[in-house]
């Protein structure tokens, strides 16, 4: 577990590395997420102060972009495509079955910390819909059996 001094030091390093950039907020948030796996709540005031923004402005950007998490992800991240071509191939049905099997909704993590479920809008695998991504690996023509891929 990271203590607040370590977190603050690491955030300060990331802020310093982006000091010369114009419009550095998104690159900073990407680096913070790469470092911690999410954007820790405690990082928001420090980032806001360094960039002369309000905490609400930084929080607004974190919540606007779905790629940023405000909580750590589960051990596996399962993304299901929600875009049109996959919808036409039954993505809604698969999503419903996956949600029921995992007992969670979009952007949630199973209580055992195993799986985080996220929607994604086109994985570039439209001809093989419904498409999914399991921990960064593309899976085409998926069905509810995709849950088995995140079984451990
Ligand atoms: S629409 Fe699903 S991968 Fe493109």
From TrEMBL:
Reaction catalysed by this enzyme: a quinone + NADH + 5 H(+)(in) = a quinol + NAD(+) + 4 H(+)(out)
Keyword Metal-binding included in the entry's annotation: yes
Keyword NAD: no
Any GO MF annotation of the entry: metal ion binding
This protein's name: Formate dehydrogenase subunit gamma
InterPro entries: NADP_DH_HndA-like (IPR028431), NuoE-like (IPR002023), NuoE_N (IPR041921), Thioredoxin-like_sf (IPR036249)
Organism ancestry: Bacteria, Pseudomonadati, Pseudomonadota, Alphaproteobacteria, Rhodobacterales
Record's keyword terms, sorted: 2Fe-2S, Iron, Iron-sulfur, Metal-binding
Binding of [2Fe-2S] cluster, residues: 81, 86, 122, 126
Cofactor note: Binds 1 [2Fe-2S] cluster.
Cofactor(s) named in the record: [2Fe-2S] cluster
Pfam families: 2Fe-2S_thioredx (PF01257)
SUPFAM superfamilies: Thioredoxin-like
């Amino acid at each position: 577990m990271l203590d607040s001094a370590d977190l603050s030091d690491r955030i300060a390093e990331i802020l310093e590395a982006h000091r010369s950039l114009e419009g550095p907020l998104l690159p900073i948030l990407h680096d913070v997420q790469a470092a911690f796996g999410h954007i820790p709540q405690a990082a928001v005031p420090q980032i806001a102060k360094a960039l002369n923004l309000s905490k609400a402005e930084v929080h607004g950007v974190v919540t606007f972009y779905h790629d940023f998490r405000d909580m750590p992800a589960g051990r596996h991240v399962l993304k299901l495509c929600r875009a049109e071509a996959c919808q036409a191939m039954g993505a809604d049905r698969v999503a419903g079955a996956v949600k029921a099997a995992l007992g969670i909704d979009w952007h949630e993590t199973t209580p055992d910390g195993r799986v985080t479920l996220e929607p994604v809008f086109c994985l570039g695998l439209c001809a093989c819909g419904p498409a999914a991504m399991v921990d960064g690996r593309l899976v085409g023509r998926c069905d509810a059996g995709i849950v088995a891929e995140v079984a451990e």
